[in-house]
Every structure is written in C-alpha cells, then in structure tokens.
C-alpha cells in the first residue's frame, strides 16, 4: 500500500522511511495543537527527569567525542583521503569555510554573540564558588563558558558524524544515510528494519533540531523588528516570520547547491565579517583586541575543568538550562550538518577534515564572541550598562543584539542589516536542511523531484510554528524541553559511530604488522655465571641448562633492519631457513629464524 501511494504521489524515496518520518511529524503537530496541556506536561516531566539523571551523560559524551577526533586525526589514519586517492577537493578553502560557517554555527553567532557573555556576566555559572555578578571575575568566567559552548565542543558534535558520513559515503560508496555509518556492525541489515529505524530517528531528530534553530531566529527577528519599526512581539508575527523564512528557503532549494546555498553562504560570511569590523572599529578596539587574546588563554587553561564540570556540589540547575540544552540541541541537527559537511568535503584527508572543521570555525567563533563579549563588557563597566538588566533581569535574550547596537552609531540601519543577516542565515539553514533530509530519505544524491525537498522545508516550518506558538509553555522554554528529549538517542548512537568508523578504517587500511625486534641471551653478573659453571654449586638443579647465559649482552637473532616484514608475512612461499631473496632481487639476505 505504501509503495502504491508513493508511486501515485510520484515520489522517489524509500516509502517506509519517508512515510514513517512524515507520520511522526504530522502526529506531533496535531497532538500538540489538540492535546496541548497533556503533551506539554509529559514533555516537561520527561525532560526534567533526563536533566536530573542524565545531564552528566550529555556533558561527558561531547568531551569523549573530542578526544576521539584528536586521536583519529593524529593517527596513521589521518592520511586517508575521503574519496578517490587522485581526487582534489571540490571546493576552494574559502568557499568550503563559508559553507561550513553558514550551515553550522553562523545563525548561532548572531543570536548568542551578545546574549551569552552578558547572561553569564549577570548570572555567573559558578556563583556557588564565590564569583559575584557584574565583576571582572564574572566577566572572565563568562568568556570561558562562552568559548566552551561555541568553539571546540560544539564543532566536535558536528565533526564526528560528518567524518563518519564522509568516510562511508565517499570511501565505501554507501548511501548518504545515518544507517550507512553502522554498516561495519549491521552489514546488509542497514537496508532492513534496524537500518530504517535508525534513519527515521535521524530524520525526525534533524527536523526538530533545525526547528529549534529557526525558532530562536524567529524570536530574534521579531525582537529586532519590534525595536526598529514597532512590530509587536506576538504569535501572529512569529508565524509570519516563519512563513517568510521557509518561503525564501523554498526558492533557494529550487536553485540548488551552487546557485542557492553557496551564493547565500558567501553573502552571509561577507556581511558577518563587515558587521564584526564595524563593532571592532567603532568600539573600544584596544580593549577588545587584548581581551580576545587574554580570554583565549584563560579558556585553554580552564578547558579541562569546564569539559567535565557537572556542578556536583551546588547542583544549581544552571548547567541543565545551558550546557545540556546546547549539546542536546546541537547533536539533533548534527546528521543534517554532518551530511552537508561531508558532501562539500570530498577529496580532503581525514586529518585535513578534522583540523579544518574543528579549528577554522572555532577560531572565527573565538574572535566573534571575544569582540562582541568585550564590547558588551565595556558598555556595562564604562558606559552606564543596561545590557544585563535587559537580558538577565527582563529575560529579553532575543533582543540582546539590538540593545547592544543602540550604543553604536547608525543603530537603526545596523539593526536592519543584522535582521537581514539573521534571515539569510536561517534561510540557508532551512535550505540545506531540506536538501539533506531529502537525501537521507532517498538514499542517493541523484535527481529527485523538487516537491520532496519543498516538503521538508515546509515540515521544518510546521514544527517550528508548533513549538513556538501552539505548545503549552511556548517560546525558548518549549524549545529547550523538547530538544533535550530528542537528543538522547543521538548521544547513544554517537558512541556506536566511533566504533564503526574505527572498525572500518582497520578493515580497509589494514592492521599494522607486529614490530619484530631481536631476541637477547640472558645476562647475569660475572660472579653468578662462575657459580653456575662451578659443578659444586648446590643450586645447579634449579637452573635451566639449555638456557644460554652470558656476561656481555649478546643477540640471538639478527638486528631489526634485517627482519623483512614482507619475508615474515609471506614465509610460507619460501624455505623457513637459509637464504631468502630480497624483494628487489638485487641481493640475497641471510635470515635466521632461530
């Protein structure tokens, strides 16, 4: 029946995956609208239980993933090319970075660039350790946590699945699906019920993860429009904004990767850099420059503590609202970002991939948050303040950027530019998400009906509207509660992804042969050798007479340079003793196997 319906609709997907994913999304939307209170109560209770009992699991997981990526890049597998050995990277480094930036964290920088440092300045994460709000110590700690949340650890969550996708798609030529990563474990069962279940979970999680991002962007755009042209912050206008963003994304989807996402990504990065230069040039330039370098140093120093800090003694719940939310949110849309990054990274080695995807966006994030963070601190410490009151006391997190720009010349025009930048960022996110979701449903990247990609753009918009407007709690609280639940299975799957990648690399690259070293005779002090050679020694019966004992160290077997691994591996082709010809045939080697 599903196949008949699939063909009637002129689709080109795997019917069971497509219809199962679509059904869950439709049921969620309808259930939230018609059973608002019951669903809100259930989601809130489950989310609270997870935060209380498994928050540590989320925090530990990301650090484990980071250590794994560093290891894999530094190992011999770092030289493995993600694609044919003779193929060069498809995109230049500049275009590659721009697409990484726009699809991954560009929209996050706009929302949290001011809000995150200011929030932690007014409400220090480690207040239980004696850090007072509004102090220099609070500002220092605010930057530590901001870097922790938006540099290496965030990009680790994107990089792990992206690397797995890149290897299994470009090296093993498997379908661009999450289930393909588990091929070393499942084998051909990736096409069976287990593989399809993995793909359905990944697709649904990706829709919710992207929806949370669009929801945050909608709140920010609504706040900016309210401040610049007086549009009220209301559910109606949020629905209008979601409709506009998804409509523009649909147009970009129709244009394709090169004409749509790539062009928008380049526009994004140019405008973002110009906004950064504007703030750096017209703000306290020296203060910000010094602050970026200083905060980088304190972040590196504090990173081991931050990476494993769980607020064990105070148990204030702060980390549940921030770190755990970030990690759960990020990992839900990591399959979408992962496939997208894998697709644009064909032809690069694993080492280039890991260093590029981890380091380049992290470096830009350090500069971005450093500039906006220290500019915000300057406003609080030297210009009468106001940001902490608005963000922390009034809870206007979405309006933080626009309140910040009021302290700069051309506040009105710059706010309009910032709004346009946020819109473009989110159009790019919906566009690339629709493309990737369609790819995961199809299992290939060849031609597919345009209507399928449009469906996923609309689906993201529907879920965003449902979470923001129709859920019981609404706003940021609804986004947080929902995404923490959705993120749990993704953390579990990530551990299996690490195992699957290592197993595949060992199978494909081969395990290194044992290192053969020479064997040595037993060395004893001269006086002990004399005793054992003396026939009157009362302990002679305890010695192994066959064991050769010497005073001067003496090798039994040849030096390692004569131990040819080729000869050792293929010894069955040769006589085990005597003369063996070298691979070059230029001369014979005398090889004693002992």
How would you describe this structure to a colleague?
- It contains 21 helices and four strands.
- Mean pLDDT is 84; it is low at 562-594.
- β3 and β4 form a beta hairpin.
- The chain has helices at 2-8, 15-34, 36-74, 93-104, 106-122, 136-150, 152-170, 183-186, 193-229, 235-282, 285-308, 318-332, 334-344, 350-382, 387-393, 400-405, 411-442, 450-470, 475-509, 526-533, 565-569, and strands at 522-523, 549-550, 579-581, 588-590.
- It starts with a helix and ends with a strand.
- With 594 residues, the chain is mostly helical.
Topology:
Blueprint: H1 2-8, H2 15-34, H3 36-74, H4 93-104, H5 106-122, H6 136-150, H7 152-170, H8 183-186, H9 193-229, H10 235-282, H11 285-308, H12 318-332, H13 334-344, H14 350-382, H15 387-393, H16 400-405, H17 411-442, H18 450-470, H19 475-509, E1 522-523, H20 526-533, E2 549-550, H21 565-569, E3 579-581, E4 588-590
Parallel strand pairs: 1-2
Antiparallel strand pairs: 3-4
- Rough outline: globular
Order of strands, widest sheet: 1-2
Task: Assess the beta-strand content as a share of residues.
Answer: under 5%
Number of β-strand runs: 4
Which structural class do the helices and strands define?
mainly alpha
Helix content: 55-70%
Q: Largest sheet, described in full?
A: 2 strands, parallel
SSE arrangement, N to C: HHHHHHHHHHHHHHHHHHHEHEHEE
Low-confidence stretches: 562-594
What would the average pLDDT be, to the nearest integer?
Answer: 84
Give the radius of gyration.
30 Å
Offer a quick outline of the entry.
This protein has 594 residues and is mostly helical. The chain has 21 helices and 4 strands.
């Amino acid at each position: 029946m599903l196949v008949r319906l699939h063909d009637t609709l002129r689709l080109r997907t795997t019917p069971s995956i497509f219809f199962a994913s679509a059904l869950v999304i439709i049921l969620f939307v309808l259930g939230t609208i018609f059973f608002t209170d019951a669903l809100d109560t259930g989601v809130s209770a489950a989310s609270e239980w997870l935060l209380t009992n498994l928050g540590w699991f989320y925090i530990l997981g990301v650090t484990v993933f980071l250590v794994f990526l560093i290891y894999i890049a530094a190992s011999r597998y770092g030289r493995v090319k993600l694609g044919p050995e003779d193929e060069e990277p498809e995109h230049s480094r500049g275009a590659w970075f721009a697409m990484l930036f726009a699809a991954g964290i560009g929209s996050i920088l706009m929302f949290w660039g001011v809000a995150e440092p200011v929030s932690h300045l007014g409400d220090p994460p480690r207040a239980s350790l004696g850090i007072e709000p509004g102090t220099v110590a609070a500002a220092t700690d605010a930057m530590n946590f901001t870097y922790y949340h938006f540099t290496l650890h965030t990009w680790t969550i994107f990089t792990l699945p992206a690397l797995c996708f890149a290897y299994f798609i470009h090296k093993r030529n498997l379908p661009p699906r999450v289930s393909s990563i588990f091929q070393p474990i499942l084998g051909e069962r990736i096409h069976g019920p287990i593989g399809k279940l993995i793909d359905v979970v990944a697709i649904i999680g990706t829709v919710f993860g992207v929806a949370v991002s669009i929801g945050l962007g909608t709140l920010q755009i609504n706040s900016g429009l309210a401040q610049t042209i007086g549009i009220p912050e209301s559910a109606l206008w949020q629905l209008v904004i979601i409709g506009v963003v998804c409509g523009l994304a649909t147009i970009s989807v129709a244009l394709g990767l090169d004409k749509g996402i790539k062009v928008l990504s380049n526009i994004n990065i140019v405008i973002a850099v110009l906004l950064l230069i504007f703030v750096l040039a017209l703000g306290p330039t020296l203060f910000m420059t010094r602050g970026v370098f200083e905060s980088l140093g304190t972040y590196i120093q504090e990173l081991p503590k931050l990476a494993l800090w769980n607020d064990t003694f105070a148990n204030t719940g702060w980390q549940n609202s921030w770190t755990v939310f970030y990690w759960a949110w990020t990992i839900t849309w990591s399959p979408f970002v992962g496939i997208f990054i894998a697709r644009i990274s064909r032809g690069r080695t694993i080492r280039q991939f890991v260093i590029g995807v981890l380091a380049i966006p992290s470096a830009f994030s350090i500069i971005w948050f450093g500039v906006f963070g220290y500019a915000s601190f300057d406003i609080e410490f030297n210009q009468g303040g106001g940001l902490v009151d608005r963000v922390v006391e009034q809870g206007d997190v979405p309006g933080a950027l626009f309140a910040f720009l009021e302290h700069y010349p051309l506040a009105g025009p710059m706010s309009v530019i910032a709004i346009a930048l946020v819109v473009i960022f989110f159009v790019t996110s919906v566009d690339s998400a629709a493309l990737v979701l369609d790819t995961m449903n199809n299992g290939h990247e060849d031609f597919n009906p345009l209507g399928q990609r449009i469906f996923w753009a609309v689906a993201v918009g529907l879920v965003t509207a449902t979470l923001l407007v129709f859920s019981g709690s609404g706003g940021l609280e609804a986004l947080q509660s929902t995404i923490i639940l959705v993120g749990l299975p993704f953390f579990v799957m990530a551990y299996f992804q690490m195992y699957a990648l290592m197993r595949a690399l060992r199978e494909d690259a081969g395990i290194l042969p044992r290192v053969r070293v020479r064997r040595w005779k037993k060395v004893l002090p001269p006086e002990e050798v004399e005793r054992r050679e003396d026939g009157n020694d009362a302990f002679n019966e305890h010695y192994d007479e066959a064991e050769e004992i010497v005073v001067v160290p003496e090798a039994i077997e040849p030096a390692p340079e004569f131990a040819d691994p080729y000869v050792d591996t293929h010894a069955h082709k040769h006589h085990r003793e005597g003369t063996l010809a070298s691979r070059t045939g230029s001369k014979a080697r005398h090889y004693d196997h002992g």
